[in-house]
Amino acid sequence: MNQERPTEVDDSEFMDIARDPEHFTQSRARSLCFWKGLARYYSVTAGGQTDRNAAWYYPHPSPLARRIKHHVAFGNGVVVEEAAPQVKQ
C-alpha cells in the first residue's frame, strides 16, 4: 500500500464549531487518521433531525494538521449554509 504523506491540510472543509454549538452533541465514536491524529465525532441536529456521527474534529492534531484544531468537518450528507443575519426592528 503506497500512501503519500501530505504536506498541508486543505482546511476548506472545516468550520469553527464555536459558531453554532447548539447543533452538536458529543459522540463516543473515534477514528484514527495516520497523519492528522485521533478524530472525535459529533452528532448534528438541525431542522428537528439528528444525523449521528456526521461531524468530526481533531482535538490534538499532528503538527502538519495544526490549522484544523478547533474546527469541525462534515460528512453523511450534511450541508452547512450561512444563515441570514437577524435584523432587529
Automatic annotation (TrEMBL):
It comes from the Bacteria. Residues 20-76 form the DUF427 domain. InterPro entries: DUF427, DUF427_sf. It holds the Pfam family NTP_transf_9. This is DUF427 domain-containing protein. It comes from Streptomyces cavernicola.
